[in-house]
Write a structure and sequence with these properties.
Blueprint: H1 4-17, E1 21-27, E2 37-43, H2 46-64, E3 70-73, E4 79-84, E5 87-93, H3 94-100, H4 102-105, E6 110-111
Parallel strand pairs: 2-5
Antiparallel strand pairs: 1-2, 1-6, 3-4, 4-5
Helix pairs in contact: 1-2
């Protein structure tokens, strides 16, 4: 099985493959019991929000045989949250990402260096 960090990286790559913007992985395990990692991504349209969330689900099913056990928001909307236990994925349109401002909210989290992971950004 994959470690939480490996899972977060796999999900970041999945978002990258569908042209997700400004992808961040934050290590949050030392701050909250919610998740070990948050993966945050911006989408350019509600259609892309759906495409990105679908890609995350497909990737996790293929690589880990795991489906999200909790989904919030709605795929047709401006944000969606996919909870894969140790890793939570947040996909936002730009205004929603600014509004929720998770990077500020979780400013004590440790950012994961994605330099060698992402192609597009």
């Amino acid at each position: 099985p994959m470690t939480p960090k490996e899972t977060a990286i796999v999900l970041a790559k999945a978002l990258d493959s569908k042209k997700g913007i400004d992808i961040r992985v934050l290590e949050t395990g030392h701050l909250t019991t919610l998740a070990d990692y948050f993966v945050i991504c911006t989408a350019t349209s509600t259609t892309q929000v759906r495409a990105l969330s679908d890609e995350c689900e497909k990737t996790m099913k293929e690589t880990a045989g795991e489906l999200p056990h909790h989904v919030e928001g709605h795929r047709g909307g401006t944000w969606v949250l996919l909870d894969f236990s140790s890793v939570v994925v947040h996909i936002f349109m730009e205004d929603a990402r600014k509004f929720y401002d998770l990077e500020r909210l979780w400013s004590d989290a440790t950012p994961v260096d994605l330099t060698d992971v992402l192609t597009g950004n």
